[in-house]
Amino acid sequence: MKVALFATCLVDTLTPSVARATATLLQRLGHEVVVPPGQSCCGQMHVNTGYRREAVPIVANHVRAFAGAEAIVAPSGSCVASIHHQQAEVARRAGEHRLADEAEELAGRTYELSQFLVDVLGVTDVGAYYPHRVTYHPTCHSLRLLKVGDRPYQLLRAVRGLELVELPGAEQCCGFGGTFAVKNADTSTAMLTDKMANVLGTHAEVCTAGDASCLMHIGGGLSRLRAGTRTVHLAEILASTEEAVTPDQQTRPAVSA
Amino acid sequence: MTATVPPKAPTFLGLPTAPRGVGHLRGDQSFPDAARGALRDGQLRANLGHATSTIRGKRAGVVAELPDWGQLREAGRALKAATMARLDDHLEELERQVTARGGVVHWARDANEANEIVTRLVQATGTSEVVKVKSMATQEIGLNEALEAAGLDVFETDLAELIVQLGEDKPSHILVPAIHKNRAEIREIFARTIPGVDPDLTDDPRQLAMAARTHLRERFLRARVAVSGANFAVAETGTLTVVESEGNGRMCLTLPETLITVMGIEKVVPTWRDLEVFLQLLPRSSTGERMNPYTSTWAGVTPGDGPQEFHLVLLDNGRTAVLADEVGREALHCIRCSACLNVCPVYERAGGHSYGSVYPGPIGAVLSPMLTGVEDNASLPFASSLCGACYDVCPVAIDIPSILVHLRAEHVEAQERPTAEAVAFRGLAKVMSHPRLWHLAQRASRLGRLIARGKPTLPNALPPPVSSWTRSRDLPTPPKETFVESWVREHGS
Description:
The structure holds 2 protein chains of 2 kinds. By secondary structure, chain A is of the alpha/beta class. Chain A has helices spanning 9-14, 16-28, 44-49, 52-66, 77-85, 87-93, 97-107, 113-120, 140-145, 151-157, 180-183, 185-201, 212-224, 234-239, and strands at residues 2-5, 32-34, 71-74, 110-112, 133-136, 163-165, 206-209, 230-233.
């Protein structure tokens, strides 16, 4: 299958290793990966901060960049949920009915990584090897909007060498919430503190999830605490093999010396 | 009906919202400022964490018992949506039926009118004391303050509401108004404020309840006027319903000579059959019980039995304005169960007072700004990480996250002058919709590498608004190359 990869603005700019891992994984599974160079953002940050009118040209750019793609995969539950639930709506509200129809049609071919692997490709064992103790945080939008359910667990359980430990209070939000983390920094940090306490309580080496944004939040907090536990995206774990622990993957926590 | 068509349609200024200067829908601080203080209160955090997790567990247990919960929830949603679509008809039917059964119906445009009506009705009875059943609508309009200003004594009879009243505090939860207090704090309030209380009172829950009971019993027996709210009003028979746990409601609704009920106009349901759905949804969602201990229903006046005078005050106070909002009107479906508060990670940490309104938590963050007009509660729609837990548990499936996002936009679009944030977001939108500009901006973000000076994270001390992030969280140093850049370099475009 020819898969168009939507890296998402955050991953592309700040954690390119996540997109690289997604591409590596899909290629290893025998699929052709294309990366439309015109891509930027799904528009979610604008919509969720109240700039739904301003989001319309961003949606238009996204639709233009991915026009004609057979299947689109993104390593982010949140961005895919926005593509499914918000893009057509903001376009329609702005009177851009044609764009809304196109966005809706594109959304029908857009998948979050774990859903694409399990539902479309029908694989749970992707041949990965990752010899670490790992706990999984189900991010809110993949859990409640996309309803990815136990797909990430199925994928993680099939990874050789990986010890999966249950995260207490797993379904509680980590406190990221996009601009919420800045506008309500104190409440966001209070939520993060409880999430980190649960993560650290598992004694896992790695906390993983399907959203680089939530991981940047949790990982940023863990790094500040000088905790050894690091955050690694699900794609990076699934891309790892005996031959190559994910290319470019950070195996040490981002602790400033 | 004939009407001359005006040459030019007059400018529509919007439907009236809840007036300022009365009631409890507006706080005096923004949510982030109020929360900052609350988050530092360790006792509050512990009390809230314990109480909400207990009630969350109870709710999850009793909801899981019902195989048809999903259908019940959908029925509740559909009934509310259908009722709101013909709200005026149902309210007029309710008025006809209440009147036919000997009650008197009063229409109150807002908090001021409702307070005036109730004060006048109480004064007409010649009494100086009023007992009250816990009611969100009367909290919303500040009825206690209005009655006290008229020289009347008001006694809250719900245990938690009594704790709040005696402690000169404010409720912080829809169902459990004293959720922020623990046993020791309640004992202290009772010991200090209840006249003639046992000086050896301990913080044993039974002892505390008995102290409140003795205190209240006297007031029930001598009260001549009671004020209540209503959970539901059945239009077809003019029947009012109050659902409660302690029996104080039953006392208030049956013992006094005069009963005055203040009810938001959205509480009407068309038929008794509709109650079947809501009386299953409400107790399981709110207290986590299969059935609540007391469900009182009454219609008008029954000679020789119960209150001989009954007044129903139908309150708008901004509800029609909410109804006019195509996205936000769903918030009127709320049956005040408070399940959304108990699952909300923001509520659990910041507490109810941070919202500044009698309606806290996720439902409050949408309802309060719509009742007052979004500019009077502009920080509330942003007081959510949009995690969606509230939508999942709502027994009438109110899509609270979508309404929050909608109200954020209403706030942004209401600004007449561009804010710094708006300038930044508009600029970013332009950049993100033009790939060439976007790639330039991504390259510019690499300037972060200079200030990181080879370290994997950026320095903590950065200018606002980045500082709000970096005060508690590290930011990774931007990479040398974006993913798309490196891919294009390797594969061509």
